[in-house]
UniProtKB/TrEMBL annotation:
Entries under Pfam families matching the protein: GCV_T
Any Gene Ontology biological process: iron-sulfur cluster assembly
Record field: transmembrane: none
Name under which the protein is recorded: Folate-binding protein
Parts forming coiled coils: none
Stretches assigned to the GCVT N-terminal domain: 27-155
Superkingdom of origin: Bacteria
InterPro entries reported for this sequence: GCVT_N, YgfZ/GCV_T_CS, YgfZ/GcvT
Length: 341
């Protein structure tokens, strides 16, 4: 981990856990702070792919579900990348800087996605680069104290997905509050943020922000499990139904216009931990899985909150962690409505 983040980690007694991820003490206090306090997180669960070259926009337009022409120096966008069968291989947050496109995605699939994109470049004037982790640290921050630093450094924008740039430094306003920060290698911002009275939180604790926002990142455990609409990707602007072709486009369009979608993403509360990718069950359709966990975070002792993708017909009939219907999920509200509601 490069300076000055290392000084910040040492100051807050950060440790590398068994999975190689940065962690801090008192996880539940971190989660509480993400929801209601001043926080700073290094998001080591995410990586960045840079797509450069004069054909970059055209190339990405033919690969991703969102309209890449809407991405600009002042506007970021969510998008997805699917198989020919419409199943998501990845989800991204995309922004533009100096005519290059930057794709933020789950770290556990980043290398494979970069390799796959490179395979389809062919004769296009495009270069796909997975940026090295030691040289890249994406931070998340939330709360009035760290945001005051951004206000003094940028002309701060609060509209979701607004992009602020100063030199090589990038900040992006997130839906439901908070900012992503992608500082340049020589940026003064990390040093400025070290002096802020903010709780140091892990990427695992920061995850509750995305769960509250109803945004489930595609990870290795959920690759090729969902058509974009199953994860409410069209609700957060990750799918355009007016652009041209891309892998899986026919399936995505058919799902949108022909009949009601059978599975949707919901928010739920659990009393038992279940890993991302764990199957879910309902007495409405016995002896078969009706969905899976898409994201999860502990919020209290014996209490977790999660995003789940399940068959809509089962949602009101009861969803359980086991086929024996022992641990039930409790419905929680998402911050947006889907077309089915």
């Amino acid at each position: 981990m490069k300076q000055p983040w290392q000084s910040w980690v040492d100051k807050n007694q950060g440790q590398i856990d068994q999975e190689g991820r940065l962690s801090f003490s008192d996880f539940l206090a971190q989660v509480t702070a993400v929801r209601s306090g001043n926080v700073l997180a290094l998001l080591d669960n995410l990586r960045i792919i840079r797509v450069a070259g004069e054909d970059a926009q055209t190339f990405l337009q033919g690969q991703f579900s969102a309209d890449i022409r809407d991405v600009s120096a002042t506007r970021a966008q969510f998008s997805t990348y699917s198989t020919a069968k419409g199943r998501m291989l990845a989800s991204f947050l995309i922004w533009q800087h100096e005519d290059n496109y930057y794709l933020l995605l789950s770290a556990d699939i980043a290398a494979a996605i970069a390799k796959r994109l490179t395979m389809f470049v062919m004769r296009s004037k495009v270069k796909v680069t997975l940026l090295d982790t030691p040289e890249v640290q994406v931070a998340g921050l939330r709360g009035s104290a760290p945001e005051q630093v951004l206000q003094a450094y940028f002309t701060l924008q609060r509209q979701p997905l607004a992009v602020m740039q100063r030199g090589g430094d990038i900040a992006i306003a997130l839906p439901e509050g908070g900012y992503l920060l992608y500082p340049a290698l020589d940026s003064p911002l990390p040093a400025l943020l070290q002096d802020v009275d903010a709780v140091a939180v892990s990427a695992a604790a920061w995850a509750i922000r995305d769960i509250d926002a109803g945004i489930a990142w595609v990870t290795l455990a959920t690759q090729e499990q969902f058509v974009p609409q199953m994860a409410n990707m069209e609700v957060i602007g990750a799918v355009s139904f007016k652009k041209g072709c891309y892998p899986g486009q026919e399936i995505v369009a058919r799902t949108q216009y022909l009949g009601k979608l059978k599975r949707r993403l919901y928010k739920a509360s659990l009393t038992q931990f279940a890993a991302v990718g764990s199957k879910l069950f309902s007495p409405e359709l016995p002896e078969q899985s009706i969905g899976m966990i898409a994201a999860i975070c502990q919020v209290a002792e014996c209490r977790y909150e999660a995003l789940v993708v399940v068959q809509s017909a089962c949602w009101d009939k009861g969803i359980y962690l086991e086929a024996e219907y022992i641990n039930a999920l409790e419905a929680l509200a998402l911050p947006y409505l889907t077309q089915d509601e």
